[in-house]
UniProtKB/TrEMBL annotation, chain A:
Residue ranges annotated for the Transketolase-like pyrimidine-binding domain, each copy included: 4-177
A single GO molecular function term of this UniProt record: oxidoreductase activity
Cofactor dependency: thiamine diphosphate
Keywords annotated in UniProt: Oxidoreductase, Thiamine pyrophosphate
The protein's name: Alpha-ketoacid dehydrogenase subunit beta
Pfam families associated with the record: Transket_pyr, Transketolase_C
Record InterPro entries: THDP-binding, Transketo_C/PFOR_II, Transketolase-like_Pyr-bd, Transketolase_C
Record bears the keyword Oxidoreductase: yes
TrEMBL record, chain B:
Cofactors, names only: thiamine diphosphate
Pfam families registered for this protein in UniProt: E1_dh
Keywords, ordered alphabetically: Oxidoreductase, Thiamine pyrophosphate
Lineage: superkingdom: Bacteria
Native source organism of the sequence: Micromonospora endolithica
GO biological process, one term: pyruvate decarboxylation to acetyl-CoA
InterPro entries cross-referenced by the UniProt entry: DH_E1, PDH_E1_Alpha_Subunit, THDP-binding
Protein name as annotated: Thiamine pyrophosphate-dependent dehydrogenase E1 component subunit alpha
Record bears the keyword Oxidoreductase: yes
Domain annotation Dehydrogenase E1 component: ranges: 12-294
CDD domains hit by this protein: TPP_E1_PDC_ADC_BCADC
MF term (GO), any: pyruvate dehydrogenase (acetyl-transferring) activity
């Protein structure tokens, strides 16, 4: 079976959707030469009318995509740097997201915002290392954070086909993941449906994006002590509450590992959404970036503010101790 | 015999004028909540620009946007119902004054964020042109928007990719209360020229002058030309927003207001009609607006159970808040 990298899964999803639907086109910075190596080969295959290199005008080209979507196209914007989403937050939230309701259903804004290399890239410091997915879940924009190559493919395909704006975060920590994949079996992954990567009986660990791989490693590590179920929501908004409630109802314990800042991060929402509904046997725990985290440059400092395996292991052991 | 084009222009400015006056009455009577940004005094711009457009051309406007929506051909009754927040409004009562849209006649929406429509319109026209044809688009904005970076980025993008968008700056002298002289370094047309865009200044109080300059620009754009800018000099006759009717703000000298109001687009356009033609248009507009008020006030209030209807085009439903 061929090995598919996460990055090539994204490329493949874009190429497949561009082949299937002539209204799909790409725009972004340096995408013709594929600076992020996601759009490699697409210029040659689809031509300059469907692979648009933009000037460094993030706000304008984000709203350009909104306008293009209003008149029937399906733009996909690549953002090289996750913090550019702060710059275009207004354009996405105040325009793309609000248009269908504000117009009383007269229009749709099917734009995909793809962020390859979100979160820490190690050594890229304060302004290039954010992971702002919780912000988009908060405002109600569909938000996906795939962990594996097959999910990266399937979720990006579904994002492009969705009639609403969708932000796709491809964590830097997952971009180099490779997996044995039957290419013919690659399929769209429905938005809003989670996935249990590893079944377990004692505790449910909700892991977001690249942290799924850390959670699986920790679960394996302590398998002789604790039976850990690893739940990957895949889509943060809309969230697969039914899937998570089912898991937690069996295990009775919950730990969330989330690369957001702690206050108002998706980890907080996951815990709230569970405890409103399910009686746990121990207080839930979360492992996140600290409050207000700005990633410092030096590698040891960068790592120190990201959720790590040791913290996750401690959190699991603590919920086991607590009840 | 009056030129039919002059009758049409007069009808549009008169319709907008009387629509706004009736809307202000409905603000006072409490039927329109949240107030409005009256377009009074600026009617000649929307009327003149839209008279030079085709039905399949597209426009996007501003928070002071009633004139653009009406001039492009939206039904005044459904527009008024929208301002009253009724289910039979253009946006089913979900948008209100600042977001009125009618995609059926090419109005991609008033937009309450200053300077936002330029980039949206550039993308919309680019997408329309991709399918062939010679559609053009108009982005209306005020003098305040020329200091918004997003709009200047849109100028660059449209010029770079030669997207036929007509950028229409309605320079009414004030960004809310900030005079142009206190806010704009250089000139408005100079901004367009810096991006290689043709730019002209027109008397916004004269709808025929606006129509003529727009028609020339549109003809160039249909023939393959890129974007252009028109700065239409105008004067806002009334408040920035109707809240000023209750809270008087002192920022425009009375003699300036009197001077500004002395050049009234309704009178300028009306003087080109025979008395009989003008009276006939006036009567027809009143009949239309009588019916519009009746339609709006008889419209059903939206059901609170549907407060978040249309939030997602994909059919996704949001969790409730309780």
């Amino acid at each position: 079976m061929p090995r598919l990298s996460y990055r090539r899964a994204l490329t493949r999803a874009l190429a497949d959707e561009m082949t299937r639907d002539p209204d799909v086109f790409l725009l972004g910075e340096d995408i013709r030469v594929a600076a992020s190596n996601v759009t490699a080969g697409l210029l040659k295959r689809f031509g300059p009318d469907r692979v648009l290199d933009t000037p460094l005008s993030e706000q304008a080209f984000t709203s350009f995509a909104t306008g293009a979507a209003l008149l029937g196209t399906r733009p996909v914007i690549e953002f090289q740097i996750p913090s550019l989403l702060f710059l275009v937050f207004e354009q996405i939230v105040n325009h793309a997201h609000k248009f269908p309701l504000m117009t009383g259903g007269q229009c749709a804004v099917p734009v995909t915002y793809l962020v390859p290399g979100s979160g820490s890239r190690t050594g890229w410091a304060g302004q290039h290392s954010d992971h702002p997915y919780s912000l988009f879940a908060h405002v109600g924009v569909t938000t996906v954070v795939p962990a594996t190559p097959a999910d990266a493919y399937g979720l990006l395909v579904s994002a492009v086909r969705c009639d609403d704006p969708v932000v796709v975060f491809a964590p830097a920590g997952a971009m180099e993941v490779r997996a044995d994949v039957d290419l013919a079996a690659l399929v769209p992954v429905p938005l809003g449906r989670g996935r249990v990567h590893r079944a377990g009986d004692d505790v449910t660990v909700v892991a977001v994006g690249h942290l799924v791989h850390d959670a699986l490693a920790v679960a394996e590590d302590i398998a002789d002590q604790v039976s850990v179920e690893v739940f990957d929501p895949r889509t943060l908004y809309p969230f697969d509450w039914d899937g998570l409630w089912e898991s937690v109802s069996r295990t009775g314990r919950l730990v969330v590992v989330d690369d957001s800042n702690r206050a108002c991060g998706i980890g907080a929402e996951v815990i709230a959404g569970v405890v409103e509904r399910v009686r746990l046997v121990a207080p839930p725990r979360r492992v996140t970036r600290p409050d207000g985290a700005v990633l410092p440059f030096a590698p040891a400092l960068d790592r120190a503010v990201q959720p790590g395996r040791e913290q996750l292991r401690a959190a699991i052991q603590n919920v086991m101790k607590d009840g | 015999m009056t030129d039919p084009e002059e009758v049409r222009l007069y009808r549009t400015v008169r319709l907008i004028r009387r629509f706004e006056e009736r809307a202000i009455g409905l603000v006072r009577s409490g039927h329109i909540v949240g107030g409005i940004h009256p377009y009074l005094g600026q009617e000649g711009i929307a009327a003149g620009v839209c008279a030079a457009l085709r039905a399949d051309d597209v426009v996007a406007g501003t928070h002071r946007g009633h004139g653009h929506v009406l001039a492009k051909g939206a039904d005044p009754a459904r527009m008024l119902a929208e301002l009253c927040g009724r289910e039979n409004g253009l946006n089913r009562g979900r948008g209100g004054s600042m977001h009125a849209a009618d995609f059926g006649v090419g109005v991609l929406g008033a937009n309450a964020i200053v300077g936002a429509s330029g980039a949206i319109m550039t993308g919309a026209v680019w997408a329309a042109r991709r399918r062939g044809g010679d559609v053009v688009g108009v982005s209306f904005f005020g003098d305040g928007a020329v200091n918004e970076g997003m709009l200047l980025e849109a100028f660059n993008l449209a010029a770079l990719w030669r997207v036929p968008v007509l950028f229409v700056c309605e320079n009414n002298g004030y960004a809310t209360t900030m005079p142009v002289d206190g806010a704009v370094a250089g000139t408005i047309t100079g901004r367009a020229e810096a991006f290689g865009m043709p730019a002209s200044v027109v008397d916004g109080q004269d709808p025929e002058a606006v129509r003529a300059v727009t028609a020339a620009a549109v003809a160039r754009m249909r023939a393959g030309g890129g974007p252009e800018l028109i700065e239409a000099r105008t004067y806002r006759f009334d408040a920035h927003h109707t809240f000023e009717h209750a809270v008087r703000l002192d920022y425009r000298p009375p003699d300036e207001v009197a001077r500004g109001r002395s050049r009234d687009p309704v009178e300028i356009a009306g003087a080109r009609l025979s008395d009989a033609d003008r009276a006939a248009v006036d009567a027809e507009v009143e009949t239309t607006l009588d019916a519009a008020v009746e339609f709006a006030l008889a419209g059903p209030e939206p059901d609170p159970a549907d407060a978040l209807a249309y939030l997602y085009a994909s059919g996704l439903t949001a969790r409730g808040g309780g």
